[in-house]
Amino acid sequence: MDDLMIDGTNSSPLVKLDASRGLAQLAGESYPENAFDFFEPIALWMRRFIAEETQPLLLELRLSYLNTSSTKCLVDILDELDEAYGKGRDVRVVWYCDKRNERARESAEEFGEDIDLPFEVVLEESAQ
Amino acid sequence: MSDENVGDTPDPGLEEISSVLRNPAFAADPLLPKYKVLAERYEKTLRSFMKTLRISDRYQLRMKELNEELDAAMRTDYLTGLMNRRAFFDRVDSERSRAKRHGRPLSIIISDIDEFKLVNDRHGHAAGDAVLRLMASVLLASLRQEDLCVRWGGEEFLVLLPDTDIAGAAAAAEKLRAAVESAVTRFESKEIRVTLSAGAAENRGEEVEDTIRVADEALLQAKRSGRNRSLARRSPG
Known about the structure:
The complex is a heterodimer of chains A (128) and B (237). Helix content of chain A is 37%, strand content 31%. Chain A has three helices and six strands, in the order E-E-E-H-E-H-E-H-E. Chain A has helices spanning 35-52, 68-86, 102-111; strands at residues 4-6, 14-18, 23-30, 57-66, 91-98, 119-124. Chain A has a six-stranded mixed beta sheet with strand order 1-2-3-4-5-6, with helices on one face. Chain A starts with a strand and ends with a strand. The mean pLDDT of chain A is 94. With 237 residues, chain B is an alpha+beta fold. In chain B, 56% of the residues lie in helices and 17% in strands. Chain B contains seven helices and nine strands. Chain B has helices spanning 12-22, 32-75, 85-102, 116-123, 125-142, 166-181, 208-224; strands spanning 5-6, 9-10, 106-113, 148-151, 156-162, 185-187, 190-192, 196-203, 230-233. In chain B, the strands form three sheets. Chain B has a five-stranded mixed beta sheet with strand order 4-5-3-8-9, with helices on both faces. Chain B has a two-stranded antiparallel ribbon with strand order 1-2. Chain B has a two-stranded antiparallel sheet with strand order 6-7. In chain B, helix 5 (125-142) crosses helix 6. The longest helix of chain B is centred in the N-terminal third of the chain and has 44 residues, at 32-75. Chain B is elongated and about 105 Å long. The interface between A and B is medium-sized, with 18 and 14 residues.
């Protein structure tokens, strides 16, 4: 299946979805004009990956800020991945946060609540 | 379904659906399994909604904190930690109207480190910065809690003195001058001493810029008559 690459902008994160490596990366800030339009191809890619591929999936996040709509989209994506994990797929999430930004860490951890898949928050010297 | 609460918040819709599904009259309904699936989907949507709100609240809190930090940074002089001009102009109007309302005096001191350029020339800018930082703490220590000490320019400090007439301002200016004279900045292995000239003026209801001008004239006169001295001038208003 195809990879999906979207360049980052001021208001939307860089997206790198690499099917052959089973690596999905989102980095930046997310407050696009229409978050649902922005996240739809990402959610579709994840769904296809789960349906068509068999290798593990690692989702790496370096998101320092998400507006409410983006938060909703990501919560939904994580729910879908969690469902796949529940059915035996090897899926895990690592969220990298700026060490100096305590609130960002708290938000990241909040995303990991209510789901069972391995969800790790890693503090970095400087995310972004 | 596990319970009728999503997080700690009871949801009336979920309670209603659960009670309907538990009703024995529906037990034999062939659509019951379908209803249950829909009920679960509703619960899931509700959970994700609540989770989104929690996370969103957190981001908003962070934004608010950042705004407050930014606001504080905008009012603070980075080198000395003193308030800056913006903070002064934000506060001076309310001090003026308070003084007018209560019939209390209000004064201003402008002070300037004498021949500060020599410190930079002889010891370097890092030494100059150390002197400015020490002077800021010396001035603060010599003032009252309610006084506002501002880094006005390079080596220039302005003090706003609420509830203080010209005699009080003259005394405060002299106190600042004496405190600076006896302070020593230790920088690397050097001991650096500086002196301060100060001009004081009382605001008599005129525009604050006019009071500052009068204090500036007093400061200039202090400089001209040999530096390391303080002078007070009554404003024309």
